[in-house]
Amino acid sequence: MREAVIIEAVRTPVGRRKGSLSAKRAEDLAAKPLQALIERVGIDPGLVEDVIYGCVSQVGEQAFDIARQAALIADFPVEVPGTTIDRQCGSSQQAVHFASQAIMSGDMDVVIAGGVENMTRVPMGSNMQGVTINENLTSKYEIINQGLSAERIADKWGFSRQQLDEFSLISHEKAIAAMKSGYFNKEIMPLEVNLPDGSLDLLRYDEGPREQTSLDKLSELKAAFQEGGKITAGNSSQISDGAAALLLMSRDKANELGLKPKFRVLARTVIGSDPTLMLTGPIPATEKVLRIARLSISDIDVFEVNEAFASVALAWLHETGADPKRLNPNGGAIALGHPLGASGARLMTTMIHELERTGGRYGLQTMCEGHGMANATIIERLA
Fold first, then answer.
1. Active site members
2. Are 68 and 100 in contact (CB under 8 A)?
3. pLDDT of 291-318, one tens digit each?
4. What CA–CA distance (Å, rounded) separates 331 from 89?
5. E-strand spans in the chain?
6. Phi, psi (5° rounding) for residue 169?
7. 44 φ, ψ to 5°?
8. How far apart are CA 366 and CA 283, in angstroms?
9. Could you give the residue ranges of the DSSP H alpha helices within 198-281?
């Protein structure tokens, strides 16, 4: 069978809500990683046979097939198409799946997969304005917001408020340590941004990590979704702006072009889960993708599990028995941010660079998704 390999992966810095990236239109932001991939690898953009981007709130500046717009803005030839997909928070991870499937099937040889979300300019839920959840759905399932799902997960697994806050503090500490050590430097492409005084500067770092946070500060935050609850803004993922993309090829095409593949996409899966708890899907998705890859949890060197909420990652750890030291070693979405449609590609990009830095072989990524779904992917570093 043909192999789908990853040649390069790059991302923008992740901006805070109303932060340095808030002045950038989403289409322009989406184009930046496309340009960076071509510059880094040095190939003709006309070789790209499709651009597949994830984006959740496809309205306003993020409507009208942002993947195609981004490719045109990035000066790709008009012959290069683009398509935009929505699998909620896992949208750009699903883009990687679709790209690898197109390559493995023989339909294509060169595909870019990625994602974008500018949550400052296109707020979460913008695409649902004026619409209520269909009664034919609510009559079958209890449909609640994700914050309440996170509360129920915390209760079901018996996590205390302090445990959630401790996990969140560690996420910030790991992210700050990684930033200071330069671990993100290779994966991040600096972006030119406008400062409040009208001058220009280069944004080189993620804006989310908070060096001054502490358990005391986190404990002072009020519950965000339920009176007397445990889920706060401090132990939830941040509202963010950002984009990321990966260049995938068939191994034969990479060889033909004289390019050295970095990773191969070893196994992929997507599952449905309880639409009320909604956020537990990464647990069965992890079990399934490990079976497909014929690996055990102990074989995996790095896990990237999206920190939508601290309770989600803690429940995943509890059920899988994974080594906590291998989970999100450079921090997760609680510290780094969660630009919805871009997060899948951001996690994959970070995992790739961490495996390269440490010499690890296998990485496993999984994300919870709205309505109760989860993607899981295993990649293998190629020596």
1. 89, 338, 368
2. no
3. 999 999 999 999 999 999 999 999 999 9
4. 18
5. 4-11, 15-16, 50-54, 82-85, 110-118, 191-194, 200-203, 240-250, 263-272, 302-305, 362-369, 373-381
6. -60, -40
7. -75, 120
8. 9
9. 215-219, 251-257
